[in-house]
Amino acid sequence: MADHAVVAGEPVDMGRRKFLTRATAATGAVGAAFALVPFIESWAPSERARAQGAPTELDLSKLEPGQMTTTVWRRSPIYVVRRTPDMVKRIAGHDADLKDPNSDKSEQPAYAKNPVRARSAEYLVLVGTCTHLGCLPKQRFAEGELYPSWPGGFFCPCHGSRFDLAGRVFQGSPASINLRVPPYSYPNERTLLVGGDEKGAA
Description:
Shape: elongated
CATH topology of the largest domain: Rieske Iron-sulfur Protein
CATH class of the largest domain: Mainly Beta
Strand content: 15-25%
Number of helices: 3
Mean pLDDT: 84
Helix content: 10-25%
Low-confidence stretches: 36-44
Largest sheet: 3 strands, antiparallel
Number of domains: 2
């Protein structure tokens, strides 16, 4: 009898009333949560913003020496290579075989216009599309892999363009300029931020 009351001469089931009240409150809370989802998602960069150049982060701690990983920025593949000291050493010694050894006609930020084409010798960051017709060059890092004097680098199987371990194009390749270097920075020692340093672009 404690769960019943009388309103206007009619008995009222208080247990049922409490249940309906709680159910209504719960439904309202769920509805409010769903209403907030688009609002919260609006804080994150949209697909369009990312395509137009929102920076891309990459965790470098999982990349072993001698390995390459790929990420995406502005809908383009970005090659990130952690070069070993031996790979860095093999960048030198074949300038006469290159179309643009000093990267004077190629695209890179000012801080990457150097022999290793990078902020540091250890990490190479390139736009992974051939500068001939936009194909995807394959890694051929082993010395002598393509031919006896091959120092290691990238080979485009579509039309035969060849690039060294700094992304510089070899004579005889259909590509006329070196692989592009995107703007990038290191917010900390284990993170690469591609597109995060547009001011450094040349």
